[in-house]
């Protein structure tokens, strides 16, 4: 089954799979609060006609409320606690997924999605639930792991078993919106190791090169440009069975048939 992936910057990816369109952690506007977007606002044509939203957690750069309001009424596949919080903000997000539950998407249920573990509790929010998850997305013959924000953890080795199939594509975070990463994140080397642990056949790095604090774009100079290519180098070194695919915001890639 064909898979086309479009990266819209930061952690926002659009998955076109089996006639179904999913968008992960939609940040569809120019900025995210105080964080500045380096490139242009994503083209609406890249994310319109979405069938479901994959929401990993409620940090402001992932659960961007004004972006989610542009998609209101579209199912949001996230935890139950996150869904309840979104409902309190006036968003019709559904009831959320239980642990181990597969949700179906599409007129014939041709795509299925479930939550998987993410370790991202280093900076708990006092005003939002702190549930964090990744997603497994699967259609006939194709499996995608969208990691969300997470540390490297041992149970990643179980993801292919949870899917019942090899991981064809890993969408993994490799940096952040500042040169130094806090806990609960992966840098480019840890992300490459994660691709090896899960046995991913291809990998797209996200969460890099897009957002920055005001006046922080060049401190240290060039820091925003390095993580993608560094990840590709680390994958070749640490996960030789995986093919890295480095995109720039707005670019798309199709899984080879």
Instruction: Tell me, rounded to a whole number, the average pLDDT.
Output: 93
In order across it, which strands form the biggest sheet? 7-8-9-10-11-12-14
Kindly state the percentage of residues in helix: 10-25%
Number of strand segments: 15
- How large is the share of residues in beta strands? 15-25%
* Gyration radius from CA atoms, angstroms: 17 Å
For the record, give the distance between the C-alpha atoms at the N and C termini, rounded to a whole number.
8 Å
Which residues sit in consecutive blocks of at least 5 with pLDDT less than 50? none
The assigned structural class equals alpha/beta
Order of helices and strands: EEEEEHEHEEEEHEHEEHEE
Morphology call = globular
């Amino acid at each position: 089954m064909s898979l086309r992936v479009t990266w819209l910057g930061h952690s926002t990816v659009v998955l076109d799979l089996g006639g179904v369109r999913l968008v992960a952690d939609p940040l569809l506007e120019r900025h995210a609060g105080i964080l500045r977007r380096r490139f242009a606002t994503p083209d609406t044509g890249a994310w319109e006609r979405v069938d479901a939203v994959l929401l990993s957690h409620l940090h402001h750069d992932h659960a961007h409320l004004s972006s989610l309001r542009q998609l209101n009424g579209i199912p949001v596949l996230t935890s139950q606690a996150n869904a309840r919080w979104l409902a309190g903000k006036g968003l019709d997000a559904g009831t959320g997924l239980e642990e181990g539950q597969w949700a179906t998407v599409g007129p014939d249920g041709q795509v299925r999605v479930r939550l998987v573990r993410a370790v991202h509790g280093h900076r708990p929010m006092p005003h939002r639930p702190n549930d964090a998850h990744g997603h497994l997305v699967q259609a006939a013959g194709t499996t995608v792991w969208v990691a969300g924000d997470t540390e490297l953890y041992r149970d990643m080795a179980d993801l292919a078993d949870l899917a019942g199939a090899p991981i064809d594509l890993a969408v993994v975070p490799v940096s952040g919106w500042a040169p130094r990463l806090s806990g609960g994140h992966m840098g480019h080397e840890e992300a490459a190791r994660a691709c090896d642990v899960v046995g991913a056949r291809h990998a797209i790095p996200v969460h890099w090169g897009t957002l920055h604090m005001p006046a922080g774009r060049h401190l240290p100079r060039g820091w925003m440009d390095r993580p993608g290519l560094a990840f590709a180098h680390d994958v070749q070194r640490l996960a030789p069975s995986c093919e890295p695919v480095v995109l720039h915001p707005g670019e798309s890639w199709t899984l080879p048939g």
